[in-house]
Amino acid sequence: MDTTEQFEKESALSLKLFVVLTRALESIEKQVVNNIKSYGLNLTEFGVLELLYHKGDQPIQKIGQKILLASSSITYVVDKLEEKHFLSRKACPNDRRVTHASITDEGKQLIEEIFPKHAEALNEIMGGLNAKEKELMIDLAKKLGLHAQGL
Amino acid sequence: MDTTEQFEKESALSLKLFVVLTRALESIEKQVVNNIKSYGLNLTEFGVLELLYHKGDQPIQKIGQKILLASSSITYVVDKLEEKHFLSRKACPNDRRVTHASITDEGKQLIEEIFPKHAEALNEIMGGLNAKEKELMIDLAKKLGLHAQGL
DNA sequence: TATAATTAATTCGAAATCGAGATATTTTAA
DNA sequence: TTAAAATATCTCGATTTCGAATTAATTATA
What we know:
2 copies of one chain form a homodimer. In chain A, α2 crosses α4, α2 packs across α5 (105-125) and α3 (60-67) packs across α4 (71-83). In chain A, a hairpin with a 7-residue loop joins β2 (87-91) and β3. Chain A contains 6 helices and 3 strands. Chain A has a single domain (21-149), classed as Orthogonal Bundle (Arc Repressor Mutant, subunit A), CATH 1.10.10.10. Chain A has helices at residues 3-37, 43-55, 60-67, 71-83, 105-125, 131-149; strands at residues 58-59, 87-91, 99-103. In chain A, strands 1-3-2 form a 3-stranded antiparallel sheet. The longest helix of chain A is centred in the N-terminal third of the chain and has 35 residues, at 3-37. Chain A is mainly α. Chains A and B meet through α1, α5 and α6 of A and α1, α5 and α6 of B. Chain A binds a DNA duplex through residues 42, 44, 59-61, 69-77, 80, 95-99.
């Protein structure tokens, strides 16, 4: 096989991988969203609350980095969660440009209720793979993500 | 290891897989979107055009099934593409409920220009994995997606 | 120190997506 | 054969996300 052919084959694989991954994640997310929306949250809101619950108070801008969301979008999501009383904004004493988002007791209570069910549902949704395969896929996804991120 | 412990471990893996996959695909899509938007298309529009180019005319509703989009959203996307003269609607002679979407010459020209570059870019974006790993991941993603879809 | 560059959060308008409901047509079944 | 159920598309209003521009505060630099 010459180099051109080699390259064609590799490209076809990359394309295929992209399509298959996209479709798989669409199906998975559809399920997850369904589970979470019965608690009045969307996936982004859940992600933000979960982050605050497990990692503690965060500068608003840090949240955007972790959830991969534009700064204007975080403002919007934090507004929504604040309206629902699941988090509160707290001025940062060191740097007056910064606002911290902090999960409320009500928010904690919600996450403590949702999270185990979310984990269980996710486990069913991911039931197409066994433990070994999941570990394998985690490694592959990490490699893939790291490379793509660094471009 | 007892069954509870087993289950906890499996759940943790599922959770991790979900997070890692989501992050990876976010990074990948960000790159792909950047490449495509320089041609005035978003990812959905590109997907629709590409489908029509490679699979021929399609009933509007079929498009939604393949791209995983709500019927109201397809109407919107097809409107956009029609405005840009990349596709046209054609009444179905057999079933008057149905409208076919058909790629125009202008649309074909665009896809013929974009697609090779898209494939090449995607190949770089996916450069974190070698061919064997890609094949492996394709299989895993297929399994995962099929199972999630069937729930 | 004064000025310039950077950073954090917000506002605003536009785009993309959804779900519920409407309309037209076709298919099923009583 | 007619009435009921199903199907395809579209309209409409609401939600979520984005990018560009704005404001305020901090840090770097001349």
